[in-house]
Amino acid sequence: MCGVLGLVSHEPVNQMLYDGLQMLQHRGQDAAGIVTAEGNIFHMHKGKGMVREVFRTRNMRDLIGNAGIAHVRYPTAGNAGSSAEAQPFYVSSPFGIVLAHNGNLTNTEELYENVCNKHLRHVNTSSDSEVLLNVFAHELRREVSKKAPYQLTIDNIFNAVSEVHRIVRGAYGVVAMIAGYGMVAFRDPHGIRPLVLGSQTDESGKKSYAVASESVAFNALAYDLERDIQPGEAVFVSFDGSIVSRQCSDKVKLSPCLFEYVYFARPDSVIDGVSIYQARLDMGVSLAEKIKRELPVDDIDVVMPIPDTSRPSAMELAVHLEKPYREGLIKNRYIGRTFIMPGQATRKKSVRQKLSPMETEFNGKSVLLVDDSIVRGTTSREIVEMVRASGARKVYIASAAPEVRYPNVYGIDMPTREELIANGRSAAEISAEIGADGIVFQNLEDLEAVVKALNPKIESFDSSCFNGVYQTGDIDEAYLNRLSTEKSGCGGLKVHPSKMEHSISISDSDDDEE
Known about the structure:
This protein is α+β, with helices and mostly antiparallel strands. The chain has helices at residues 14-23, 51-54, 57-62, 108-117, 128-144, 154-167, 216-219, 258-264, 276-294, 311-321, 344-354, 359-362, 378-389, 427-434, 444-454, 464-467, 477-487; strands at residues 3-8, 31-38, 41-48, 67-73, 89-91, 97-105, 170-178, 182-187, 196-201, 207-212, 224-228, 233-238, 243-247, 270-271, 274-275, 302-305, 329-331, 355-357, 366-371, 394-399, 438-441, 492-496, 499-503.
């Protein structure tokens, strides 16, 4: 999973881009990058690491201009790549273009062969985002070459985006800048990945615009959330501050990623008209009703969250079960998330570094632990062991998400089916596997209903990791088998002089796990 941010302002944007990236840091901790525009000149700095590690004062001073785009990146687990994989990416033809992308393309190899290889567009990295940039640049070239002299128009830009929507499959939230012209942002026709538009009006009445993966980025910038960018829509903001938008696809359907609401987005964000915090509270209510049917509630002494994402659901769940809510697991915020650790042995060790139990809260009690989701099960198993060692009499687990049975191919770095603990197992078997006394998973229908109730305009969801239904319609058994084979190998996009192989590991924008 990644985070993107773009700004067109009437004042220098380097500090604002930095501050906005800090608010999106949860979407990517492996690499960060900023590009600013000063007239026809781009200034870029990017590298591996957290935002605060990548940028120093000397770097910020060089990022001159009143417009810019920025990116934070999560790599494929175990395949972080070099600093060259950091975004934004740049091409010089037909115009200077920089692009940042959140999501994952599912037909990267086809795009490489039909666009990059066929039209001699060079790709430097293993990122599908760089392929996407070259596809967009190629379509812009086709547009401007239709009529001499080469003069880019808004129609050219929107026509190029329309062609991108026609030939590109997968999930993408994109922000790009075209040297000398302005910033363009667009979202895939299914709206799988989030993208929001914000604005700010200064004392003189001048308006500035921002685009981000999540509305929380606007909080630090004192920008107002205007609206979500719609599936298939493109928004262009010229460097003088004028804005225009257009629907660039005739086949659109709002189907946001359900996992954003469960786990990835910050609770203080609003995505597609839905408050993430409220959605997670409501998940706790529906989960409590299922717990009443499936667990011996009278045997539960206390409800505790597995920090941090599950906390709103756990609090509301405790209220509806009429049970005490306690914080028994304390998170060390200076330890990296377990799912970016390579290998299970390192993952197992990092769980005990990340979470510390308070024995007084567990001793002699029957505990219901609430998690946002259970993916591999490694973290859950370790936590159950820790809680029992701390004196718990019984350990039950409730998951705010349904069983994760399928890999996600739209930008979330989930394991292959073989690694998913729910693959081929019932709830009772999962409970036994992680050593719990009982386990309850949210019903998919209930989860979808909770989110949809907060915005009835949402037509459907990308719930593919739960039900195996992929919105783009191009994911079949052969694709998933190839994913399993390639992820068990070395993974990544491998670029050769005349060939690119797409090993779905999954993209440049990845994230996941308990």
